[in-house]
From TrEMBL:
Belongs to the HAM1 NTPase family. PANTHER family: INOSINE TRIPHOSPHATE PYROPHOSPHATASE, INOSINE TRIPHOSPHATE PYROPHOSPHATASE/HAM1 PROTEIN. It is an enzyme of class 3 (hydrolase). This is Inosine triphosphate pyrophosphatase. It comes from Lepraria neglecta. Pyrophosphatase that hydrolyzes the non-canonical purine nucleotides inosine triphosphate (ITP), deoxyinosine triphosphate (dITP) as well as 2'-deoxy-N-6-hydroxylaminopurine triphosphate (dHAPTP) and xanthosine 5'-triphosphate (XTP) to their respective monophosphate derivatives. The enzyme does not distinguish between the deoxy- and ribose forms. Probably excludes non-canonical purines from RNA and DNA precursor pools, thus preventing their incorporation into RNA and DNA and avoiding chromosomal lesions. CDD domains: HAM1 (cd00515). The keyword Magnesium applies. Binds 1 divalent metal cation per subunit; can use either Mg(2+) or Mn(2+). InterPro entries: ITPase, ITPase-like_fam, RdgB/HAM1. GO terms for cellular component: cytoplasm; nucleus. Its cofactor is Mg(2+); Mn(2+). Mg(2+) binds at residues 38, 69.
Length: 187
């Protein structure tokens, strides 16, 4: 059965904008903000649990749900802060995240995005992951979207890139391309 509408569970307008830019022509996308407590665990465990719980909630719009989890993994710290980046960024800010790597020569990092899709309550979520390797640098560019100002890919931070370029190479863009291909195969 063709997908007529997809509920993206997010309150983040920047994420919504990026998702609409990549998926908007495939399926009508609705957005709903839900306060979902995140479990501790691996990237996949957190993503699947979040999606299962979102699908189980009686949504106003109804239908299949899409959740997203973003990680920033410092290679020198064995992939920390990873899925806990939101809390690290809130507590430490951009400068504090940089300071975590002061004692290490290795400033490389991986930006990881995991989308989980679930048709509804009781269904097993499908996972679509994208990774981009870059490095952590002092903040450059606008500071209105998470840790974008400190993640550099080939000489530019995500914050310095125009949106189309970022969408074409970012962790989120890579995950969304996989999701988009899957959605197209379901039509």
């Amino acid at each position: 059965m063709p997908l007529t509408e997809l509920n993206f569970i997010t309150g983040n307008k920047n994420k919504l904008s990026e998702v609409k830019a990549i998926l908007g022509d495939i399926v009508p996308l609705q957005s709903q903000s839900l306060d979902l407590t995140e479990i501790q665990g691996t990237i996949e465990e957190i993503s699947k649990d979040k999606c299962r719980r979102a699908a189980a909630i009686d949504l106003e719009v109804g239908g299949p749900v899409l959740t997203e989890d973003t990680c920033l993994c410092f290679n020198a710290l064995k992939e920390l802060p990873g899925p806990y980046i939101k809390w690290f960024l809130q507590a430490l800010g951009h400068e504090g995240l940089n300071n975590m790597l002061l004692a290490y020569e290795d400033k490389s990092a991986q930006a990881v995005c995991t989308f989980a899709y679930c048709e509804g309550p009781g269904n097993e979520p499908l996972i679509f992951e994208g990774r981009t390797t870059g490095k952590i640098v002092p903040a450059r560019g606008p500071t209105n979207f998470g840790w974008d100002p400190i993640f550099e890919y080939e000489g530019e931070t995500y914050a310095e890139m125009d949106k189309a370029k970022k969408n074409s190479l970012s962790h989120r863009g890579k995950a969304l391309i996989k999701l988009k291909e899957w959605l197209q195969s379901q039509i």
